[in-house]
Amino acid sequence: MAESVDFEGLVVRHYEPLYQFAFSLTREKSDACDLTQQTFCIWAAKGHQLRDISKVKTWLFTTLHREFLGSRRRQTRFPHVELEFAAAELPTVSPASVNRLDAAQLFDALAQLDEIYRGPVALFYLQDYSYNEIAEILDVPLGTVKSRLTRGLSRLHQMLADKPKP
Amino acid sequence: MNRDEAKNILLLYRNPADAEDPQIAEALALAKNDDNLAQWFEKLCARQNALREKFRQIAAPAGLKEQIEAAVKQKLGQAARTTQFDEFKGRLLSALRYDLEKIIFSRRNFALATATVIVALIALATFWFRPQKGDDTFAIYQNQMASVALRGYAMDFMAANPVEIRSYLAKNGAPSDYNFPAALEKIPVTGCAIESWQGKKVSMICFRTGKPLPPGQQSDLWLFVVDRATVKGAPVTSMPQFTKVNRLITSVWTQGDKMYLLGTEGDEQTIRKFL
User: Domains, chain A, ranges and CATH?
Assistant: First the structure.
């Protein structure tokens, strides 16, 4: 039961990584707060359905991502993009220029990525989930995660390379 | 696997654990024997680490944890009541079924069975409408009213005249003997709504500060007035207390038997202008 779980401990352990994920998806502080809070509220209402409590973190990330996609679907039609193989030659973005990069520029670039790429890319950088776990969170097959990541990362690097240097 | 294919695959490499993936392992093996690919891969790793650092620097806003805890407490309370109610309903229905069977097979105790049904229904209603514990605290009130302001509401009455708004609220039994802070009196009103808190009415008065608003939005400053006694733990001070609730900055104070909650998007300095 959700009640039998120490929910304060649960919030303390997971709210920050969830917020980071939400912020990576939305780029808006307020939307990220809403999404994070909504995720815990869903856990409070439905968490008792979770049989394996060790999966609670994955469950929270899955729920947050679903909520994000759901809210976006309500706002706009979801564009379908055929995946193609990423460009093999990545643009040159040096680590030094990444360090000089303003966080806002990074999240601007991330926000320009199609939503289907944003989730995998954010999880790639934020968490140490295996690709199988990312597939579980995003509810897509492993192959799809990999192809979306390849494409998403490639595009992100491309956009960062195109940004005017600060 | 050629060099270009290896680059695509190595894009997914984060740490040695990823090398368990056969494709990544193959690409890594190729990089060991290809200087050009090895150099490219070294730069990629440095770049990915720098980006990872940027991502992990995202900090959650102060107060978010407390806000989530209050919201979850409220939800858990509702869920527990629903479960209790479902169990109670189940027991009651099985008892009723038993009584109805008795009526069908023996009409001798009809009056008794009818009385049982009535008593059971009263018990059910009493259970459902009993005063709830734990969900009437100030933090939950604050959260609930902020949600109303942020997540959309329908104005019950639209008017630019504060007198008409007060009159509408009075006519509908909502708190209407409120006082505006001096600065707030200068802000144009746009209307009002009547919200509910623990079965009591809350007056929500909507203002427009004059800054540009998105299409469809008519207000950007809201004042909630409620009887102080209905909110446990309400601050007993006429000095405004400022709290960030999600993207709303709220100012709360009490005056007489009323508690006021003023909210708008922004920071403490923003809201101080209206007090």
Answer: 2-77 (1.10.1740.10), 87-162 (1.10.10.10)
